[in-house]
Design brief:
The longest helix is centred in the middle third of the chain and has 26 residues. The model has no long low-confidence stretch (mean pLDDT 87). Helix 2 runs antiparallel to helix 5 and helix 8 packs antiparallel against helix 9. The protein is mainly α.
């Protein structure tokens, strides 16, 4: 028994998983903060919006952003939000409440590595080299780890997509597991747009598996449509809308043609960043092998690229290699790359007719150096700065801003009464920890703002100004009508706020926190401000 365990631990995949777990632990620790002697673990600000919905649900306020406020679906990840609600039933302090979500993400991504290994091994007819190459590239593909370790639903959705591909491959031409249909439907509960990989996988099976064609069409479609239908009925009943508020925020009020044009540009960037050599190897491999099953992972990748193009990309395209939509399918790229790399390595070895000793001394080092170089290229940004994040020499993106949000919430807790309200641009960390009703300037949690036309800072074709979810605001409504007691930050007019904002608010600076305080507000502890204020004008 001990010998068997020892052999399992010595397996390259086991060693990779151990190293991966250590890496994940270091990443999470490096992304934590110590404030007033307490260690805080935070999720990405958008994920903290979902955490606020989860917290309010558990506390009996309903699935809302503001207790007693407007019912609006400002999240796009219902199943992930309900998992967060389950975490809020555990006896964790606010400083540690995000930690279980982070650990869950690590577990999901670890399972995904195992699934990717199995996919590559099966497609390559049990070539462990292909399995390990795909597993390594997946394990340390930084965008996937970044979105996962910061608490986004990407970790769960990636595992569901990879597992669905594995089940589809196993069942092709034989008996398809009912778990495949269940997982495809479950994905649409994580995010509605998981219908894209579901349609791609079911469409592929329908076209290539005539024996089970009726099953794929009827059972598969039923399992995908049912959760979408249930969500829509619930949304109509609870929120009064057919689609999430974020749909109106991101997909309306801007010319569809320009949005798609921007999405095409982003798709080209993704392919360029991935590296032409990787794409060339994969294309040549698919052309040579021409096995229909190999086109399933390729179809999943193309489906996610197409969806990203349609929605115009993501809001954080400036940050790194791939956005949240494309990242979900990234492991399928590595599956195809691993198979193509091992295939061409064998072809080269056969042509050179090297002896086993020559292979070990010459070909193996070259092979290793080439893989390391491609790994660095795949994880680089245009300026290579992303490599610093990959090797944990630099904290995660927005780490400083998240800490500042945490400090701002602690400070405003002493400034505002329980009835006070705060207007925010970053709608996650501050509202969650401040526990006051808030005004969402960018409209993710506000129906009025979400349905406005987008504010166009630059005319086309200067599409750099297109940032989904960050292009709608109305200060006459958010400030003039709603009259928040405090404005923590303004968007796009930070240095030159509208005249009526200057007339209604004092500009205040306490320590490192700057905000606007509404004049004569009864919900502000003015004496405390005047005792500690650094600047009031």
């Amino acid at each position: 028994m001990k010998t068997r365990i020892f052999q399992t631990l010595r397996h390259p995949l086991s060693l990779l998983l151990i190293f991966y777990l250590l890496y994940a632990g270091l990443f999470i620790w490096k992304g934590s903060y110590e404030v007033d002697g307490k260690r805080y673990f935070l999720l990405f600000d958008d994920a903290m919006i979902s955490m606020r919905y989860a917290k309010n649900l558990v506390e009996g306020h309903g699935l809302v952003w503001n207790p007693g406020g407007q019912r609006v679906e400002g999240f796009t990840n219902p199943l992930w939000t309900f998992l967060m609600a389950g975490v809020h039933l555990l006896p964790f302090p606010a400083s540690l409440i995000s930690l279980p979500i982070l650990l869950l993400a690590v577990l999901l991504l670890t399972l995904n590595i195992i699934v990717v290994y199995r996919i590559s091994s099966i497609l390559s007819k049990n070539d462990s080299r292909a399995g390990m190459v795909a597993a390594i590239f997946t394990a340390f593909y930084f965008p996937l780890n970044h979105w996962g370790y910061l608490g986004m639903e990407v970790s769960l959705l990636t595992l569901l997509v990879s597992t669905s591909v594995l089940l589809a491959i196993r069942g092709l031409g034989g008996r398809t597991s009912p778990w495949l249909y269940f997982l495809l439907g479950l994905g649409t509960l994580v995010r509605m747009d998981a219908v894209v990989p579901a349609v791609v996988i079911l469409g592929f099976l329908f076209a290539t598996d005539p024996r089970n064609r009726t099953q794929h069409l009827l059972v598969g479609a039923l399992c995908v449509i049912t959760p979408l239908f249930v969500q829509t009925i619930f949304r109509l009943w609870y929120y009064g809308d057919v689609l999430p508020n974020t749909y109106y925020l991101k997909m309306t009020g801007y010319p569809a043609g320009e949005r798609i044009l921007h999405g095409l540009r982003i798709a080209f960037w993704h392919l360029q960043r991935l590296n032409p050599l990787v794409l060339l190897l994969i294309t040549a491999f698919l052309f040579i092998r021409r096995e229909r099953i190999l086109f399933l992972p390729a179809a999943v990748v193309l489906g996610q690229l197409g969806y990203s193009t349609y929605v115009g990309g993501d809001a954080w395209e400036w940050w790194g290699e791939s956005n949240r939509y494309v990242t979900v399918a990234a492991p399928m790229v590595f599956v195809l790359f691993a198979m193509s790399a091992t295939t061409f390595a064998d072809l080269i070895q056969g042509k050179l007719q090297l002896s086993p000793l020559q292979q070990k001394r010459v070909l193996l080092p070259v092979w290793g150096v080439a893989l390391v170089a491609l790994f660095l290229i795949v994880n680089k940004r245009d300026d290579w700065d992303l490599i610093r994040e990959v090797f944990l020499l630099k904290g995660p993106v927005h780490m400083l801003e998240h800490r500042q949000s945490l400090e701002a919430a602690a400070m405003l807790d002493t400034v505002l009464t329980q009835e006070g309200t705060v207007a925010v641009v970053w709608a996650g960390v501050v509202p969650y920890f401040l526990e006051r009703n808030a005004v969402d300037i960018l409209g993710k949690n506000d129906k009025h703002v979400a349905r406005l036309p987008a504010v166009r800072t630059n005319p086309p074709p200067l599409l750099e100004s297109f940032h989904p979810g960050h292009m709608k605001y109305d200060y006459e409504y958010s400030v003039g009508t709603l009259k928040p007691d405090v404005i923590l930050r303004l968007w796009m007019v930070q240095n030159d706020p509208p005249t009526f904002v200057k007339e209604m608010y004092w500009k205040v600076e306490i320590g490192n926190v700057r905000f606007y305080a509404r004049k004569n507000s009864e919900n502000i502890h003015w004496e405390g401000i005047r005792c500690s204020v650094c600047k009031l004008d």
